[in-house]
DUF2516 family protein (Kibdelosporangium philippinense), 97 residues
Amino acid sequence: MPNIALYIVMAINWAAIPVGVFAFVHALLQRADAFQAIDRMTKPAWLGITGGGAVALALFSFADFTMMFWIAGLVAVLVYIVDVRPRLIEVQRGNRW
C-alpha cells in the first residue's frame, strides 16, 4: 500500500474505536424501560451488541483478513447510533409539541 493510503486506513481504524465506545456508554446510561417503550431489544441485548462491536473495532483491523469482523462491529454500533439512540432520546424527553 502506498504510504498515504496506510495513514488513511490507520485513521479510519482509530476513528471507529471512539464511536463504538460512545455507543456502548450511551446504551449503558439509558433506562431499561426506554428500550421496551421503543419496541426494540432489551437493554442487556444492546449492551452486548454495542460492547461486542466496540471490542471488535478495537481488536480487528480494517486492512487485513479480519476486516469482516471489523465491519460487523462498525455496523452494529452504527445501527444503535442511527436507529435506536434517536428513539431513546425521543421517548425519554417526551413529545415537544
Summary: The chain is about 80% helix and 0% strand. The CA atoms of residues 19 and 77 lie 7 Å apart. The chain has a mean pLDDT of 91.
